[in-house]
Specification:
The complex is a heterodimer.
Chain A lengths: L2 H32 L9 H10 L8 H22 L4 H20 L4 H32 L4 H6 L4 H4 L1 H14 L28 H22 L6 H21 L5 H31 L1
Helix pairs in contact in A: 1-3, 1-9, 1-10, 2-9, 3-4, 3-9, 4-5, 5-8, 5-11, 8-11, 9-10
Chain B lengths: L2 H8 L2 E6 L5 H10 L11 E2 L8 E5 L2 E2 L2 H11 L5 E5 L1 H5 L9 E3 L9 E3 L6 H17 L2
Parallel strand pairs in B: 1-2, 1-3, 3-5, 5-7
Antiparallel strand pairs in B: 4-6
The chains are: A mainly alpha, B alpha/beta.
The structure holds iron/sulfur cluster.
Iron/sulfur cluster binds next to helix 2 and helix 4 of chain B.
Chain lengths: 290, 141
């Protein structure tokens, strides 16, 4: 890892919360407009964060504090790794453990609401993980490397050869961001879902830390979407923002589905699409290249 | 005003509890969240979890059963917290006054910061009440 890479990684760690919080504010504003409301100011997520940070501590137990910090720090590690151009597979394994931390924290308290939220959080992970991992495999087959730096150097945009995998990633994006119709463990908006689902027992500072981790995660996932059109970079950024906007639309026109539906959509259609894409790479696109 | 107290005023999350009202006031509170009044533009969210909330919005009189729940909800909210009593029932017992099971207004059970009058309280009055509550919140150090 060279010094410039290290600096880019550190800069990403510092800037990601601002970008993530801003994007969340835009999300709330656009969602409100789509519902015929005015909506909160774009800087609203930062107010929420500061307010939560200033609340008096009320911890159910110490273990949940450890899990929350684990969630935040591991997510930060993944953002750092992505921006210094590390291995995509490792990034997603660490991200999976980070997401599991949130559920373990909810399991560590004796609240039935938090427990059901945690079950559902694990189900959501079960739905999107295969899509993300298989997509990484498809990227490997296309570029010959798992490294983000290698993908960035790949001349041709990945979207041209991985269109089906990209659609599957959009589904995974919705599940990961807990947007309708996949807001099963807890909703990103204030829709009530078994009190607050997986967040029920977190409050004050721990909730603020979770919010911070979500901002990092948003940046990470959108950066991953941007990899599909890595050259030139601005096209990738536009692609990521377009995908995010699509999530708002889907969020507002759909209702929550049951978890069995979510699993059948993600495993049946999502994984199916990625596998089909892998087959295409192997047989159709490769012969075209030769 | 410090950054955190400014943020408090800008993002009051409410939890709404019905102590046994006639539902008239509840409907008016929910009307505040609809596009017509849209209180989310002030950062107000109806969060439904006492552990996340800053403002407890109560409707209906305190009775022997609901007062225990009310007290429990109040104690679960982390400081700084405020209580807003919406409707005549919450202030004095209202039309339920002197019923065999009614204790009176909710201030018999928990401390109340803001009273919103009316039977039913109008959404405008509810929003005015929230503004008053925010004024109080900004003075908390
Ligand atoms: S104040 Fe009037 S409208 Fe409101 S809950 Fe009581 S009886 Fe119903």
């Amino acid at each position: 890892m060279s010094l410039t890479e290290l600096l880019i990684g550190l800069a990403a760690l510092v800037l990601a919360p601002f970008v993530g919080g801003f994007l969340r504010g835009v999300d709330r504003r656009i969602t409100a407009r789509m519902q015929g409301r005015i909506g909160p100011p774009v800087r609203q997520p930062f107010y929420d964060f500061l307010k939560l940070w200033g609340k008096a501590p009320s911890l159910p137990n110490r273990a949940s504090l450890v899990w929350v910090w684990g969630y935040l720090l591991l997510t930060m590690v993944t953002v750092f790794m992505l921006f210094v151009g590390q291995d995509l597979l490792i990034i997603f394994f660490v991200l999976a453990f980070a997401a599991a931390c949130l559920a373990f924290g909810a399991y560590s308290v004796r609240s039935p609401y938090a427990h059901i939220g945690a079950h559902r959080e694990l189900l959501q992970m079960l739905s999107y993980e295969p899509i993300l991992l298989l997509t990484v495999v498809a990227i490997f087959l296309q570029t010959g490397t798992f490294m983000v730096s290698g993908v960035l150097e790949h001349g041709q945009p990945l979207l041209l050869t991985l269109p089906l995998a990209f659609v599957a990633v959009l589904v995974a994006l919705g599940i990961k961001l807990r947007k309708s119709p996949f807001d099963i463990s807890a909703s990103e908006h204030a829709h009530q879902e078994l009190v607050r689902g997986v967040y029920t027992e977190y409050s004050g500072r721990t909730l603020a830390l979770i919010e911070l981790a979500h901002w990092y995660q948003l940046v990470l996932i959108l950066a991953f979407v941007a990899l599909f059109w890595a050259q030139p970079l601005w096209a990738g950024v536009l692609l990521a923002l377009g995908a995010y906007f699509l999530e708002f639309v889907v969020d507002n026109v759909t209702a929550r589905v049951r978890w069995t539906w979510m699993l059948s959509i993600s495993w049946g259609k999502g994984v199916g699409l990625v596998l089909l894409n892998i087959v295409l790479i192997q047989f159709v696109f490769s012969s075209a290249r030769v | 005003m410090g950054l955190i107290s400014k943020a408090r005023v800008k993002s009051p999350w409410i939890v709404h509890y019905c102590c046994g009202s006639c539902n008239g006031c509840d409907i008016e509170i929910l009307a505040c969240l609809t596009p017509y009044y849209d209180v989310e533009r002030f950062g107000i969210l109806n969060i439904g979890n006492p552990k996340h909330a800053d403002l407890l919005v109560v409707t209906g009189p305190a009775n022997r059963r609901s007062s225990r729940v009310l007290k429990n909800l109040y104690e679960q909210m982390p400081d700084p917290k405020l209580v807003m009593a919406v409707g005549a029932c919450t202030a004095t017992g209202g039309v339920f006054h002197n019923c065999y099971n009614i204790l009176g207004g909710i201030d018999q059970v928990i401390p109340v910061d803001v009273y919103v009058p009316g039977c039913a309280a109008r959404p405008e009055a509810v929003i005015d009440g929230v503004v008053l509550a925010l004024d109080k919140l900004s003075k908390i150090k």
